[in-house]
Design goal:
Number of domains: 1
Structural class: alpha/beta
Strand content: 15-25%
Bound molecules: D-ribose
Largest sheet: 5 strands, parallel
Number of strands: 5
CATH architecture: 3-Layer(aba) Sandwich
Distance between the termini: 36 Å
Helix content: 40-55%
CATH class: Alpha Beta
Shape: globular
């Protein structure tokens, strides 16, 4: 699939979302921006669902979700079967999110500081490769948890 990303935020992260969109577009990545518009309130589970559905349907390479902290929207996205959403705030967590977790959705907070430049964090995720091996075994175990056998 050519690089295409679905992105959405609630009202707590509009400015950071637009910065993500701008950087991805500068890299030649097409963005499906699912809002929310500036000045409009949105519930983060609804925004998470919009992106998660694009990802599990295979219509995009990966997703990006944002809310005030990044916490609520990452929790919500991870409720959708097949989603591995990683809340990242620096280059190291973004790199590990791809290399070890093969995350298919990135989450950011809009009201929290980042420990590295936003562009560098995005580039770290995009340019890293999943390393497989024992990490695939662990991801398979995550998928098994979706069967909810407790
Ligand atoms: C919305 O005010 C806020 O709760 C939300 O953006 C997020 O921080 C929740 O985790």
């Amino acid at each position: 699939m050519s690089d295409i990303v679905a992105i959405a935020s609630d009202h707590g992260a509009v400015e950071r979302r637009l910065k993500v969109v701008s950087h991805l577009q500068q890299r030649g990545i097409e963005c499906i921006d699912l809002g929310v518009a500036d000045g409009v309130s949105a519930d983060y589970p609804d925004q998470a669902e919009l992106v998660a559905c694009e990802v599990v349907a295979g219509r995009v390479s990966f997703g990006v979700v944002l809310c005030g902290t990044g916490i609520g929207i990452s929790i919500a996205a991870n409720k959708v079967d097949g989603i591995r959403c990683a809340l990242v705030n620096d280059v190291f967590t973004a790199t590990m999110a791809k290399e070890h977790n093969n995350a298919n959705v990135l989450a950011f907070g809009g009201r929290v500081p980042l420990y590295d430049d936003l562009h560098a964090i995005l580039d770290a995720f995009i340019d890293s490769k999943f390393t497989g091996g024992r990490h695939q075994r662990r991801i398979d175990k995550i998928s098994n948890l979706e069967k909810n056998s407790c």
